[in-house]
Amino acid sequence: MKFAAACLLASVVCTARAQVPSVPTLGEITVSTPRGEAPTFDVAGSVDRVEGAEIRDGRMQAQLSESLGVIPGLQVQDRQNLAQDLQLSIRGFGARSTFGVRGVRIYVDGIPATLPDGQGQTSNIDLGSADRIEVLRGPFSALYGNSSGGVIQAFTEQGEGPPRLGFSVAGGSFGARRIGATASGSQGSVDYLLSANRFETDGWRDHSAAQRDIQNARFGFSLGDGHKLTLIANRVRIDAQDPLGLTAEQVAADPRGAALATQYDTRKSVEQAQLGLLYERRIDADNALRLMVYGGERKTVQFQSIPPTAQLNPLQAGGVIDLSRNYGGVDLRWTSSLQLAGRPFEWVAGASYDQLGEQRRGYENYLGRAQAPWLGVQGRLRRDERNDVRNLDPYAQGTWQIADRWTLEAGVRRSTVRFTSDDRYVIGPNGNDSGNARYSRTLPVASLRFLATRDLALYVSAGRGFETPTLNELSYRADGVGGLNFGLRPSVNDSVEVGAKARVAGGLLTAAVFQTRTRDEIVTGTNTGGRATFQNAGRTRREGVELAWQHETLDHWRTQVAYTWLDARYRDTFCSPAPCAAGNSIAAGNRIPGIARHALFASYGWAPPDGWRAGAEMRALSRIEANDANTAGASGYVVAALHAGYLKRWQQWEFNAFARVDNLFDRRFIGSVIVNEGNGRYYEPAPGRAWTVGVSGAYRF
Predict the structure, then answer these.
(1) 46-51 and 130-137: which strand pairing?
(2) Residue 316 in contact with residue 310, Cβ under 8 Å?
């Protein structure tokens, strides 16, 4: 691996040095950092940005997986199941998640979409009004706190100019349809954007219909003297059936089937609303203050497929999960630019506080007798507890240009997370399971960047991160006893990355080699009936290579390529589930499930600012193991897509129409796996050939 990495980085260096200086045709790309906007070329780490136009053009705009394949190191798979969100991981972090997003921090307009316990979701990202999405990988992710194996940030467009009204509609295979509307503009010191989108689908698989409504609003107020106030409001509602996973035999017989899901009427409903306020003040030419305050609530009801006979155990928490969560927080940050030893020095210092209050109830998923039940309805109360999570994280980061071509960057964050559980269901043998836990770590990071030439930058970075168990991972114990699993320990990881960035022939070529060593890795212990328990599994190692190439010609031909090689393995033998018994030993050297070793994305297209446009895409993913024993997995696949459209601007009007075909050659493959599913129902099949058509329009007053 080291030899291959050296060869890859050397090829970037030699290619960049061999180029004749040319005028770049790919525009300068900037990303958000704690110290402000910075070109990606100047960042000593792996960070990429996807523009809002790329997210929307020629796409249904239903899931992030449609447009983020171009990011190396990011594995994002559409599970064809809105009840469970996307399966998303960065450099292997988050791969164990059976639902939602774990191990990766998510922000929407600076507001955390990841709660203080590390559990996140992407459902409130409105693609219809997104300005851009940024993805950070590597050691500097640790500066964002708990569960920062990587960071995804989504930003809403800022309203500009005279009022603009827009609409869009799209339809596709399997009853998919979406309708959206936006209103934006600016008047004097006020800018605004309002957006509403509804997506519905009958679902490719049986029992996978869903409906999602998102409303998003952003208001900006310029207060003069460098002061600015931004208000962000967001609401989402989801009603989705859950088709569950299938065994290999069920996939072979009927990949669209969902007999068990239909029997139990498995489903989920989600309703979330949040509000954020961002205040930015320029103190003087060298100092600035930023204050962010947010709050929200999220209600979730999920019906699972747990058999009624299993719920006869008085310690069983039932087959219906009812969660009510209130969350909020504040982040205060000071930024300053000055001189240190006669050289430019920028530093950022601040603190963030986040809190989550959860009311968790469990109910039986049947009425009547367990031997002859009426399934898929809410029955008797079986669990009632109040859980609280809080974190307080001070942090600091400094960037010092120590010489004309050398830049040193370092930072530290002290992350402390507290869990408290108050059990309110104390009946008979179900005793008082209240408890608390506290996890804390100091997370240092550092990097050194060398500007070899005007168009070639080299860097090395290193850092430490940590990941606490989430409330969902603490919620159940493998021994069947009630209460939270406070025996789980946080995992701690040490990462190092070496990279290069080169402007070549008007495009941007990036390469990174990385390794992450983790101790006390959190893994799935048991996973049956839609309910998972977790345990610690000793040491793991993730190492890999990322390559990316983006290029656009003067006549609007655009090329994008992203390749990832990732080897993720257990370094210690452990037993799953613990304790050890015959046949449950996991050997050191086994691959961590849910992670593809090879991933490739390539696209080529013509996208002029007006008129006809077209393009092709290719995605390839190698085999993914489905369990720790590596005895089951999903085979690799290659799929292709074609799209074409027409864009016309005329006076105040804009008109855009497109048509798209995914899985062009009608490949049959597994789209995602449910890691360590106890009944062998690992597989979530992907649809065959699918089409999408859409049209949008806008009028600028």
Answers:
(1) antiparallel
(2) yes
